[in-house]
């Protein structure tokens, strides 16, 4: 089982992510605004295999060029190190592909 992080650990680990990530009681959050609908769709195409590889799947709300990402380890109902690993992969994807 993945270790649940306490609020102090979450705050400390947020420093390792893009500054647009935040945290609340429902997990890690980031909103991304793409320049076009097709770019937002391509993001999903690229993110899907990463999530499958990690067996860790974010909650995502998609509206045209806006994508809201929420990370929470569903099996624990809390933020874990796995959420931060996926957030870092998302940051890397966004930096390298958009």
Commentary on this structure:
With about 100 residues, this protein is an alpha+beta fold. It has a single domain, classed as Gyrase A, domain 2, CATH 3.30.1360.20. The protein has three helices and four strands. Helix 2 (about 35-55) packs antiparallel against helix 3. The longest helix has 18 residues, at about 35-55. The model has no long low-confidence stretch (mean pLDDT about 95).
Write the layout of secondary structure elements.
Elements: H1 7-14, E1 22-24, E2 27-33, H2 37-54, E3 59-63, E4 66-71, H3 81-97
Antiparallel strand pairs: 1-2, 2-4, 3-4
Helix pairs in contact: 2-3
Write a concise keyword list for the protein shown above:
alpha+beta; 3 helices; Gyrase A, domain 2; four-stranded antiparallel beta sheet; 44% helix
Entry summary:
It contains 3 helices and 4 strands.
Multimeric organization? single chain
CATH class: Alpha Beta
Query: Do you know the CATH topology?
Result: Gyrase A, domain 2
CATH architectural grouping: 2-Layer Sandwich
End-to-end Cα distance: 34 Å
**What structural class do helix, strand and pairing data support?**
alpha+beta
Low-confidence stretches: none
How many separate helices? 3
Strand line-up across the major sheet: 1-2-4-3
Number of strands: 4
**Mean pLDDT across all amino acids:** 96
Tell me the helix content: 40-55%
| Overall number of domains | 1
From the alpha carbons, calculate the radius of gyration and give it in angstroms: 13 Å
Question: What is the string of SSEs from the N terminus onward?
Answer: HEEHEEH
What overall form do the CA principal axes indicate? globular
| Percent of residues in beta strands | 15-25%
């Amino acid at each position: 089982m993945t270790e649940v992080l306490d609020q102090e650990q979450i705050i400390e680990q947020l420093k390792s992510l893009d500054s647009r990530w935040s945290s609340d009681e429902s997990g890690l959050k980031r909103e991304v605004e793409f320049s076009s609908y097709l770019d937002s769709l391509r993001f999903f195409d690229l993110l899907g295999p990463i999530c499958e590889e990690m067996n860790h799947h974010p909650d995502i709300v998609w509206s045209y060029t806006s994508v809201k990402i929420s990370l929470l380890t569903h099996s624990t109902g809390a933020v874990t190190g796995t959420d931060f690993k996926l957030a870092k992969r998302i940051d890397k994807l966004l930096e390298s592909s958009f």
